[in-house]
């Protein structure tokens, strides 16, 4: 029987160059996480610091450590800024040069899955002209090329709509793309933050919400219930909340970054784990989760992909604190949704942080 399994993103335990990757992995395992979404930034930092820039050797060592810890590497991510590029030479370069290197890394990591977020590449800094097209035909053809190359090498891709994406910014749009790509190795990632972040939340508003937030989200979730998505096409889901800001995220807000979408700035600084209302969480994550698990019948990897300013805290307890918060959130979701078959693996208390681990292979 397929059951839900807890995963977490490596970037959700501490920032690269501040908190070392082996230490983060050890904290994830100690707190009961069974899988890790490995961010390239973490792998790059580890390679530069420990293996003189040898990414392949860093990947081999990460795999060995995860094997010893009993953790699965869910995916390597993000293979970003790819689909719909107007610069077709750059599109070809990514396929012909970058992708084969990622295949080598993914193989060394013992994962067959690469995550692709929807493109959010900004305008050309010199001309101000857009760098991407919203032409769905071009986007689909680009992703078909990606999927076909991956199929030949034994890899799958999981596509996620970011709520600040240039053209694909809703679950509906991403599912349309997945359906039209129509490849068995190309599937969907559903993310509660990005779903709610697009139709329910507006961090630039004093209320933190869009004008018709509740009705718009309810309508989107009803469409999701009736979309007849085969659960096998959902390669994994992400559960994460967002913080209601004390002031609108405008040009005077400390999270503001010139030239970046407001929702992106909010996402990078103010995500929370589900059920952290005491920290300002306000998105209806449980409503979304019920659709994922009760209506769609998804079972599999449930990853907690949190980005937050708190991850930059240099305190060595930062990875342990985030691992503790994350697994507490996961177990509460399991209780509320009555995942009765779930048996927590955690061997440490989730009430107090474990000792920090700083480790180098």
Task: Tell me what you see in this structure.
- This protein has 361 residues and is α/β, with parallel strands linked by helices.
- The chain has one domain (5-336): Alpha-Beta Barrel (TIM Barrel).
- Helix content is 41%, strand content 12%.
- The protein has eleven helices and ten strands.
- The protein has helices at 21-30, 40-50, 55-69, 88-109, 136-153, 171-181, 192-199, 213-225, 262-270, 285-295, 318-336, and strands at residues 5-9, 35-39, 72-77, 113-117, 156-160, 186-191, 234-238, 241-242, 271-272, 301-304.
- The strands form two sheets. It has an eight-stranded parallel beta sheet with strand order 3-2-1-10-7-6-5-4.
- Helix 5 links the parallel strand 4 (113-117) and strand 5.
- Helix 1 (21-30) runs parallel beside helix 11 (318-336).
- The longest helix has 22 residues, at 88-109.
- It is globular and about 50 Å long.
- The relative contact order is 0.16.
- The model is unreliable at 342-361 (pLDDT under 50).
């Amino acid at each position: 029987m397929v059951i839900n399994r807890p995963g977490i993103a490596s970037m959700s335990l501490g920032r690269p160059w501040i908190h070392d990757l082996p230490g983060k992995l050890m904290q994830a395992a100690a707190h009961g996480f069974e899988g890790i979404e490995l961010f390239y930034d973490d792998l790059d930092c580890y390679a530069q610091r420990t293996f003189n820039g040898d990414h392949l050797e860093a990947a081999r060592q990460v795999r060995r450590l995860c094997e010893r810890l009993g953790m699965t590497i869910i995916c390597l991510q993000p293979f970003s800024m790819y689909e719909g590029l107007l610069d077709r030479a750059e599109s070809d370069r990514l396929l012909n040069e970058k992708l084969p290197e990622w295949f080598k890394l993914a193989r060394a990591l013992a994962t067959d899955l690469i995550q692709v977020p929807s493109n959010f590449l900004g305008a050309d800094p010199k001309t101000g002209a857009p760098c991407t097209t919203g032409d769905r035909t071009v986007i689909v053809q680009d992703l078909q090329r990606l999927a076909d190359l991956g199929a030949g090498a034994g890899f799958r891709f999981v596509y996620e709509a970011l709520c600040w994406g240039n053209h694909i910014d809703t679950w509906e749009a991403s599912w349309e793309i997945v359906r039209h790509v129509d490849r068995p190795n190309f599937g969907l990632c559903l993310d509660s933050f990005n779903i709610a972040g697009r139709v329910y939340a507006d961090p630039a508003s004093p209320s933190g919400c869009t004008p018709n937030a509740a009705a718009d989200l309810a309508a989107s979730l009803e469409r999701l219930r009736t979309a007849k998505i085969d659960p096998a096409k959902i390669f994994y889901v992400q559960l994460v909340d967002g913080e209601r800001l004390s002031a609108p995220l405008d040009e005077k807000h400390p999270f503001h970054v010139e030239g970046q979408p407001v929702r992106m700035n909010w996402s990078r600084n103010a995500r929370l784990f589900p059920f952290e209302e005491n920290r300002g969480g306000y998105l209806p994550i449980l409503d979304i989760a019920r659709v994922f698990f009760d209506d769609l019948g998804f079972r599999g990897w449930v990853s907690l992909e949190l980005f937050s300013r708190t991850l930059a805290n240099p305190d060595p307890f930062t990875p342990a604190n985030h691992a503790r918060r994350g697994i507490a959130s996961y177990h509460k979701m399991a209780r509320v949704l009555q995942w009765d078959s779930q048996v927590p693996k955690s061997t440490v208390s989730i009430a107090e942080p474990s000792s920090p681990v700083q480790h180098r292979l």
